[in-house]
Structure to design on (237 residues):
C-alpha cells in the first residue's frame, strides 16, 4: 500500500470523525420535600459514542468512552469536568456521542439526564439546567417513592446501571416491606444480581431462601430450575 493511499485513508478517518464536547457541569442535589441537600448521593456519568444504521442513531452503539461514579458532598454538590468525546467512526455512520447522568440515593427515586448534542446543554431541554459563564449548573430535586410499587420499580431501574448498589436497594425493600407480595420477585432479582457479579454462593443462598419461604410462588419454580442448572454446570440465564 503506497503512501498516498495511506494518507488518503488517514484523512478520511481524521476529517470524517465526529465529536461531542461536554462543558463543565456543577450540580446540587436536594430533597424535593424539604429542600435540604442530600449527602452521598451517587452520580453516575457515562460518555458514549453514537453510531447510525438502517434503524437510525444508536446511542452508545459505539461503546463507552469514559465512565465516572461520583458522590455528592455534605452540601449535596458535585462537579463533572469538561470532556471531549471523539467518535472515530466516519460520518454519517459515526454521529458524535452522548452524555448520560444518573443520580440515585437509597430511599429516593432515580433521576437521569441525557445529552446527545451540544444544544442540549441549555435550559430548553431540562428545567433543572442553568447556564452561568459557560458552566452548566444542575439543580436536582429527588423524590421519595410514594409506595412499594414505585420503590421496587425504582430498584429495578437502578439494577441496570449499578448491580452492587441495587442489591442494597432490594434488601432495603425487603426490610421496609416485609409483607409485600413482591418479596419472591425481589429475592429472584437479588439472586440474578449475585450471579451477574460472579458470586455463586450468594446466588444459591438467595434462591434457597426463595424456595424455603415462598415454596408455592412462581418464582420458587424458577429458583428450583436455576439451582439444578447451577449444580449440573448448565448455563444460567
Amino acid at each position: 500500500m503506497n503512501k498516498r493511499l495511506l494518507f488518503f485513508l488517514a484523512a478520511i478517518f481524521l476529517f470524517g470523525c465526529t465529536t461531542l464536547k461536554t462543558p463543565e457541569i456543577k450540580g446540587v442535589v436536594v430533597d424535593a420535600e424539604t429542600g435540604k441537600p442530600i449527602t452521598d448521593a451517587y452520580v453516575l456519568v457515562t460518555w458514549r459514542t453514537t453510531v447510525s444504521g438502517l434503524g437510525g442513531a444508536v446511542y452508545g452503539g459505539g461503546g463507552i468512552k469514559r465512565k465516572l461514579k461520583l458522590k455528592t458532598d455534605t452540601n449535596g454538590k458535585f462537579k463533572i469536568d469538561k470532556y471531549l468525546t471523539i467518535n472515530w467512526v466516519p460520518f454519517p455512520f459515526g454521529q458524535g456521542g452522548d452524555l448520560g447522568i444518573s443520580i440515585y440515593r437509597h430511599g429516593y427515586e432515580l433521576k437521569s439526564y441525557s445529552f446527545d448534542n451540544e444544544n442540549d446543554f441549555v435550559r430548553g431541554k431540562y428545567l433543572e439546567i442553568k447556564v452561568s459563564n459557560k458552566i452548566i449548573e444542575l439543580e436536582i430535586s429527588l423524590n421519595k417513592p410514594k409506595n412499594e410499587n414505585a420503590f421496587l420499580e425504582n430498584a429495578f431501574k437502578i439494577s441496570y446501571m449499578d448491580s452492587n448498589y441495587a442489591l442494597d436497594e432490594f434488601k432495603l425493600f425487603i426490610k421496609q416491606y416485609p409483607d409485600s407480595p413482591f418479596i419472591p420477585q425481589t429475592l429472584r432479582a437479588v439472586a440474578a444480581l449475585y450471579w451477574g457479579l460472579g458470586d455463586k454462593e450468594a446466588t444459591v443462598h438467595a434462591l434457597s431462601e426463595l424456595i424455603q419461604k415462598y415454596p408455592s410462588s412462581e418464582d420458587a419454580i424458577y429458583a428450583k430450575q436455576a439451582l439444578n442448572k447451577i449444580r449440573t454446570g448448565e448455563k444460567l440465564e
User: Anything to note?
Assistant: The chain has a mean pLDDT of 89. The domain at 148-232 is CATH 1.25.40.10 (Serine Threonine Protein Phosphatase 5, Tetratricopeptide repeat). Strands lie at 18-22, 25-31, 42-53, 56-71, 77-80, 83-87, 94-104, 111-115, 129-132, 135-142. The longest strand covers residues 56-71.
